[in-house]
User: What shape does this take?
Amino acid sequence: MTTAVYVDGFNLYCGLARPLDCKWVDFQQYFERHFPDDDIRVVYFFEALVEGPSQARQREYIRALQTRPKIQVALGKMKRKERRCRVTACRHAGDRRYLDYEEKYTDVKIALTMLDDTHRGLFEKLILVTADTDLVPAVQLAKQRRPHQRIVVRTPALHKRRYAAHDLRVAADHVAVADAELLLKCQFPRKLLDESGHPILRPTAWRQAPLNAVRIWQKQHSSHRRRRSR
Assistant: This one.
């Protein structure tokens, strides 16, 4: 079955990569192993460049992704936004405003790419990796335009509150949680070469995630919940 994958990079980072400290992931290998019976033609990876020192690490990771022939990286942007602290217990007497960043264009780009591929009838199956219900209208429209095209959602989550994705469950043909254990087995080597032979190195701040990272996370959060319930 010809298949395209649409990865919401920031959503996946918040739901799986950051809590597992597993950021150096080869997503072409991951999806080929996750869906071995599918003929995966393309993996779209939608990402927005962050501000500050983390951007250099992010750019190095994007270079690593671009060494894989099936991966296409689509960049959005981060927009600076002024926010106000709403923590009622905060006793700070000064200015409660602070600068934050929000991702722009990513969900729109995912929706447009999915619908364009649907309109052109390029694939028999679409795999959407997100827990963002803002993409429900795009999934619904894609199903209306090509009812026989299968749409599968994988929610990148370790926390049960993110598992549900109720609206996506109604809109898609199938919704399940992404395989976190497999994610840990599909990391890039520490060093790669780009097409020009230049080295691409895993950032020193990004360690090789251990294969038991999911169990470590579950144990830590189980202990945290028990302490809170006392």
About this structure: The chain has eight helices and nine strands.
